[in-house]
């Protein structure tokens, strides 16, 4: 799957998840949703590279000499950023669900 296809799929998935969120909150996190989709697509490409090269280069003559690959380093950075973005988006979703429950309790 191409990077643009992964991006579109992730963007569509996250947009669908946030469809029922208050419009102002959805506008607030719109950039985060796009960033999450971008990071997901970038990591997909990096995973393909890493599957061929590995995350660590080992010296052929001296196996104790090892060096992380740039793709491996970037993948880990992206994963950490993606995790923070998803955690933030999840927090917005959780608050939205709590507010909906509070609105329903007014009618009880």
What does this structure look like?
- The chain is mainly alpha-helical.
- It has a single domain (3-105), classed as Four Helix Bundle (Hemerythrin (Met), subunit A) (Up-down Bundle), CATH 1.20.120.
- Helices cover 75% and strands 6% of the residues.
- It contains four helices and two strands; from the N terminus they run H-H-H-E-E-H.
- The protein has helices spanning 3-17, 23-28, 30-53, 70-105; strands at residues 56-58, 66-68.
- It has a two-stranded antiparallel sheet with strand order 1-2.
- Strand 1 and strand 2 (66-68) form a beta hairpin.
- Helix 3 (30-53) packs antiparallel against helix 4.
- The radius of gyration is 19 Å and the shape is elongated.
Show the helix and strand layout:
Layout: H1 3-17, H2 23-28, H3 30-53, E1 56-58, E2 66-68, H4 70-105
Antiparallel strand pairs: 1-2
Helix pairs in contact: 1-3, 3-4
**Biggest sheet architecture:** 2 strands, antiparallel
Name the strands of the widest sheet in spatial order.
1-2
Examine the secondary-structure arrangement and name the CATH architecture: Up-down Bundle
Give the overall form: elongated
Count the E strands.
Answer: 2
Q: How big a fraction of the residues is strand?
A: 5-15%
Report the CATH topology name.
Four Helix Bundle (Hemerythrin (Met), subunit A)
């Amino acid at each position: 799957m191409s990077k643009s296809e992964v991006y579109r799929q992730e963007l569509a998935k996250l947009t669908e998840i946030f469809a029922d969120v208050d419009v102002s909150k959805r506008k607030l996190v719109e950039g985060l949703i796009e960033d999450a989709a971008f990071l997901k697509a970038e990591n997909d490409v990096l995973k393909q590279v890493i599957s061929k090269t590995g995350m660590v280069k080992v010296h052929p003559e001296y196996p104790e000499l090892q060096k992380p690959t740039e793709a491996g380093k970037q993948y880990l950075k992206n994963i950490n950023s993606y995790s923070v973005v998803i955690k933030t988006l999840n927090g917005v979703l959780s608050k939205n669900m709590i507010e909906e429950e509070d609105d329903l309790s007014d009618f009880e």
